[in-house]
Specification:
By secondary structure, the chain is α/β, with parallel strands linked by helices. It has three helices and four strands. The protein has one domain: Rossmann fold (3-Layer(aba) Sandwich). Helix content is 38%, strand content 15%. The protein has a four-stranded parallel beta sheet with strand order 2-1-3-4, with helices on both faces. β3, α3 and β4 form a beta-alpha-beta unit. α2 packs parallel to α3.
């Protein structure tokens, strides 16, 4: 069912980063997201990794509402994985980040 939004915040982090990238049609998306999240954490960022939220059984509207809540309320930046142009979800997340004036980290 995912995890509480507050559970991923780190008071000592330089930047709270929302990790975005294609998931649908990517059988190894968990590994791709995990590697990117680990790299960002090594750079002292707090990372929200939606691939680790275990929301696969949820309807898409619920997933997006859950994830966009963290993006809107906590993120200072969004990190974009390669292949984002083919992902409707990532394009939506990026549009929200732009609207909020968040920093973009291109991975």
């Amino acid at each position: 069912m995912g995890f509480a939004l507050d559970d991923v915040l780190d008071e000592d982090a330089l930047v709270n980063v929302y990790l975005a990238g294609p998931i649908s049609g990517k059988p190894n998306y968990r590994e791709i997201f995990a590697e990117a999240a680990d790299k960002l954490r090594r750079d002292c960022h707090c990372v929200f990794n939606p691939a680790a939220a275990n929301l696969e059984d949820w309807p898409l509207r619920k997933i997006m509402a859950y994830e966009l809540t963290w993006l809107c309320e906590y993120a200072d930046a969004i990190a974009i994985l390669p292949g984002w142009k083919k992902s409707k979800g990532t394009k939506a997340e990026l549009a929200v980040a732009y609207a909020l004036g968040l920093e973009t980290i291109w991975l």
